[in-house]
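task queued by scheduler; priority normal; single chain, no ligands, no partner chains; default sampling; output format set to structure tokens
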Amino acid sequence: MMRLLLLSVVVLAGAAGDVCVARAMRASGEGGGAWATAARAVRNTFLWLGVLWKAIAFFSFLWLLTLADLSWVVPATAVSFVLEVIAAKFFLRETISATRWAGVLCVCLGVAFISL
């Protein structure tokens, strides 16, 4: 039970972190070089929110590794790819191609096979 709870935290927090960081970096825009972009990014609240979510995901991942085998944990966290594509569509307004949706389906099938 604890393994599934931690897995959920890893997946959800990791996806939330990636979406927040992506939003912050898009808002930072291009131009002015890497240092100028970084300077704009560190002033964006979404960047720090993303870092917080990613830290929660990382430490939950470490805790999960004390309870389960790496050969189960890593493939099971692949579900985050599915969640991130869905989040990108709805929160970041990205256009997802049919090919990418097919890839998401393949990831789902792979995770299902690994969990057997």
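post-processing summary
- The two ends are 17 Å apart (CA to CA).
- The helical segments are 2-28, 33-41, 45-67, 70-76, 79-91, 98-114.
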